[in-house]
Design goal:
230 residues, mainly alpha, 10 helices, 0% strand, alkenylglycerophosphocholine hydrolase activity, transmembrane, TMEM86B-like, EC 3.3.2.2, transmembrane helix
Length: 230
Amino acid sequence: VKSEGPKLVPFFKATCVYFVLWLPTSSPSWFSALIKCLPIFCLWVFLLAHGINFLVSHRSASRILAGLIFSAVGDAFLIWQEQGYFIHGLLMFAITHILYSSAFGMKPLDLKAGLLMGIVSSSCYAFLYSYLSGPFTYLVAVYIALIGFMGWRAMAGVQLCNDLWTWTKLSACVGAMLFMVSDLTIALNEFCFPVPYSRFIIMATYYAAQMLIALSAVETRDEEDFRKRS
């Protein structure tokens, strides 16, 4: 972890810039989009700093990088969500969750974690359902299914009881949970009722989630050794 810390300094600085400037959402602009996306751009650089060969040889890392790229596009769309680009942002983040799920893989399967995430996702949708109308009734259902699946795959990688885990797997799991908190806050604030300090909660959990998921792409143990232990 210590060896990766210095590479994340630009991300932390960019995140501080976002919270210090705290540009109003009532007047969207390309500058505000840049400031919002800048921490994600820094995570691109963080992964690219490990080398193209690293990204090519580790498909999970390249998929996480692709997910970060779609995330940045989604962030830009959400700057103009009041102008009708909310669905566009939703689509970009749906693709992000598909890429992250693919990066986390399907082994180990861990059906108990899948059942837990299924219950959580179903409960969230059941609560939101009465507030939804039109195409959002179906779009939100699909989105919750995708992020719930992503959360399952991230959680399944952490086998604490069997001591089959690495800090990168734990990072992915915590990052996925924070991503779900961020998106649930968006849904509550957008469709149900105003959430106090919603913007701070959404962005703080979102940036932390993306950083942890980006960190999960970094292999700290020999991949073959981890497969043997699994």
